[in-house]
Amino acid sequence: MAILRTCVFLVSVLGYCLGANILYLIPFTAKSHYIMQRPIGLELSYRGHNVTVVTAHKEVEHPPNYHQVMVDNKQIWDVLGIKRPNVFTMVDMTSEEFHKNILWSGGLAFTEVALNSSEVQKFLKQDHTFDLVISEQFFQESMYVLAHKYNAPLILITTFGNCMRHNIISRNPLQLSTVVSEFLDVREPMSFWGRMRNFYFTLYEFVVWKYWYLEKQEALVKKYIPNLREPVPSLYDIQKNTSLMLINGHFSFDNAAAYGPNIIEIGGLHLTLTRSNVSLPKDLQNLLDGAKNGVVYVNFGSNVRSSELPIDKKNAFLNVFRRLKQTVIWKWEEDSLENKPDNLFIRKWLPQKEILSHPNIKVFISHGGLIGTQEAIFHGVPIVGIPIYADQFNNLLQAQEIGFGRILEYHSINEENLWNILNDVLKSSSYKNKAREVSARFKDRPMSAIDTAMFWIEYVLRNKGAPYMKTPGLKLNWFAHHMLDVYAFIFTLFIALIFVIKIIISTILFKKESPKRENKKKYN
Ligand SMILES: *[C@@H]1O[C@H](CO)[C@@H](O)[C@H](O)[C@H]1NC(C)=O
């Protein structure tokens, strides 16, 4: 009896230690964001935590301790109240326009949709306790106030790699000469003007974000999340207090950068969920197995629609594909495609990471989205990239510089350019070799990406928010943190020294010169 009681006691204590109550906020509706972040919630629940996920994408199969609070699944164009534009036209947007018209206006509208969703409102009114709040870091900062509401540590996740504004707030090194702001496309990032552009844009983004965007997010807090425990800290301070940031990057592919211990790279996480077991549909399996000359795989991601290509560019693709001996598989969003060559197969949807894992894939023609780029890296597939917006140019520039991909600028798409670039990547073995090399080093880690994420999330839980992981620089004002007071002091000393030396020299010279002058006068 006593033994049984001890067992029950031990099990309940262990249960308490192992299983935390975790709130996971990933309300942004874009599919690619969900693909990257989905494994974290599922894996936490497999490991015994009681997870509540605020999301727009419903999981059908999940453990019983995985709960979902559904956000209305609206597309960005619906929430912005505009007709869906042809996404290819976004290639001409500056990074400033992209932030103003898409990220900031879309972010505000999406946050409002999420907070105003009936299930979310119902959830907010219920009584819950959470040991930890995890949230995506993507223009829905008002959600972070829930960490204050439940008095729990906050962990943030990026789907896009390094986050400049977070680095500024959390006093992580900016490294503007080598790390480009996440959604800024700079042709030569390390040239003088490249660095100047990065500096200017980072400053611009931070100032507008801090003084305009966060104010708007604060207003959404007031409107949709009432009855918070007073005093309510500002969203800026809540983010500054973040325990941990998990970023979707890895130094084997991204530029190596220095981070404090509270920023952890988990790039490629969605490729390492061991429990997912998706296999290729039979028809695709047969098609890929039977492609004796290899396969060219074309997919511009979930937001860009190939079928919206202007007619001349579409024809360039068709004419080039017709001349290839390889099989071509293209994600094409319409039922038919006029003039379709016999070696081209179209599908409205394709299971991308399973396709890229097939040994017959020779090249991936892509828009350079980070998820797809990581999938190509993981499976060692060379890329021909046509960047359209956001971080796509940076991802592809990195692939090109490392040597497993080539960029084809959207405006340069014609039969000749596409043929030349595609054939270069198909025929010269250097791209394939480099892709294999990067694949190997991308996977060469002490722990898989998902295990790394789990370790650090549970680390924060075990260590009550682990505040000691933050730099003590946060206690200083920005002037002192950047050593500007010390530099100013040394500079002043230096100027003073020059001044003193100048006085001494001129006094000596004056003494020597003065008799001469008197002499001169005499002669006159
Ligand atoms: C798990 O979380 C849900 C909220 O989604 C809550 O209702 C439930 O009581 C929690 N279970 C435990 C064991 O804490």
Automatic annotation (TrEMBL):
Organism in which the protein naturally occurs: Galleria mellonella (Greater wax moth)
Family recorded in the similarity comment: Belongs to the UDP-glycosyltransferase family.
Protein name as catalogued: UDP-glucuronosyltransferase
GO cellular component terms listed in the entry, alphabetical order: membrane
Main location, first listed in the record: membrane
Alphabetical list of InterPro entries matching this protein: UDP-glycosyltransferase (IPR050271), UDP_glucos_trans (IPR002213), UDP_glycos_trans_CS (IPR035595)
Pfam families, sorted: UDPGT (PF00201)
Catalytic activity reported: glucuronate acceptor + UDP-alpha-D-glucuronate = acceptor beta-D-glucuronoside + UDP + H(+)
Family annotation (SUPFAM superfamilies): UDP-Glycosyltransferase/glycogen phosphorylase (SSF53756)
PROSITE patterns in UniProt: UDPGT
Record's bilayer topology term: Single-pass membrane protein
